[in-house]
Amino acid sequence: MTDFSELPLVFFTTLSQMAVGAFVVLYLLRKNDHIQEMAADRIAVIVVVLMALAMGGASTHLGDPVGGWRALLGLEHSWLSREIFVMSGFLGLAFLYALPQLKSFRSLAGLLGVVFGVVGIVVTAMVYTLPARPAWNSPYPLLFFALTALSAGPLLVSYIVHEQEGTICQAALKLTSFALIAGFIVSVLYASQQSANLAMPAGWLALRCLIGQLLPAALLYKLTQQPAGRNLLMILVLVVLGELLGRQLFYGSVLAYPLFPF
User: Fold this and answer.
1) pLDDT grade for 174, boundaries at 50, 70 and 90
2) CATH (domain of 199)
3) What average pLDDT does this structure show over 52-77?
4) Position 258 in a domain
5) Is residue 237, in this structure, part of any structural domain at all?
6) Interior/surface letters 73-104, b for 16+ CB within 10 angstroms, e for the rest
7) Which of 26, 153, 169, 210 could form an S-S bond across to 158 if both were Cys, CB 3.0 to 4.6 Å?
8) Would you list the DSSP string of 223-256?
9) Secondary structure of residue 38 in the 3-state scheme
10) Using CA atoms, how far apart are residues 49 and 16, in angstroms rounded to an integer?
């Protein structure tokens, strides 16, 4: 039985974590004058768009999207309420950071955005760290979400920098490579250690690891100092597809029925 009922959350978690990873790298590059303004401005806008799409998509998962603001009333006791608050705060700060009219406040907005983004990933992971779901009641949700940010975010920044400046952001690509290999190891450990609590088809897990981790890592390893932009774009597409598939498996693996029919 195929179940895509959690698809809005698949896109929300993947896109929001990608946005956080890109924002953190952008802030560090800009702070240290390692990126030109044109590329930085474009990345900042893309981060806002990704977060807006993520938040908008997540709202469709609510029974009453218009009344979704009421979720904030549970900040004292609900991780979901905290997630909505922190991620909304990150979106607002990223928007302020992207506004050229507020350049004098950019440093403060960037620093606060980094804090809100990182805290947002932790809080989102806590939403799924549930005793009722043994496979999730572990460090794995946090590891998965952090590794999405560390792989897709820096890679997005690298692609935009190459397109705008024609240069290679080696530090960001090395971070992506590390995250891809770490993600592969974590995925295998998760499937093996939590096998009794999962309904995860091995074939789909293998596909996820191949297209979203191993193949992109191999392509990054082969890149010369001046790779073609289309190579980075292809790697970015593979990583994002792999993260989406991995997140779908993450949700589907704990449902009463298998996510895929085979």
Assistant:
1) very high
2) 1.20.1630.10
3) 69
4) no
5) yes
6) eeeeeebebbbbbbbbbbbbbbbbbbeeeeee
7) 169
8) --SS--HHHHHHHHHHHHHHHHHHHHHHHHTTSS
9) helix
10) 10
